[in-house]
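User: Here's a chain of 229 residues. Predict its fold as tokens.
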Amino acid sequence: MDLRSMHQTAKTLGYWSRAQDVTANNLANVNTAGFKLDRITAAQSAEGSYPVPVQDTDLAQGRLRETGRELDFALEGDGYLVVQTPAGERLSRGGALRLDADSQLVSSEGFPILGEDGQPIVLPSGTVTVAPEGDVRIDGEAIARLQLRRPAEGVRLLKEGNGRFIPQGETEITELVRVRQGQVEEPNGDTLAGMVDLITIQRAYTANTDAMKAMDRVLGTLTSDIGRI
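Assistant: Prediction complete.
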């Protein structure tokens, strides 16, 4: 046993700690509309002696759930709504939208949803209907069209939180997505599988902690014995 073994075990503990944080966050968002799971995989370290955490976001679509609420918009297919935030435009998979004091269609956090003309959508009073292609009508009269976009080929999305994503490059208008009014998209993970993963991670973390303690005791004994020689 040498200090290198303790270093490798400590690095392995770091991997399991990161995996535990990510899995716990996934489970904490099981009721967040449109939430996309993060997944941790293990890459091999340069010297091949311990795992290095690699985090990725699973963008697969979750199940759509009926709510009957006219301002709940879920998206089916490859595309996103465009949200105007103080930090710039963001992409979102929709969710529970609402009207603010100025009758603007906004996200649950109060950020405007943009129309195809790049402007916030203002809705007068009346019955709201949204066609699958994104046309918004009040009492049958066309008011606006939702801006539906997707990342250009090869462009990655960075998760910002609250169901928003930052495209790491250009986006493009898409017709590969359909708006489903009165529905929300559920998280794209399995709660039971997440709990099983968390238990597995905790056991692995405990095993490595026990190994670290054992190596520390051995090192302490060696140091003590050398000191008496």
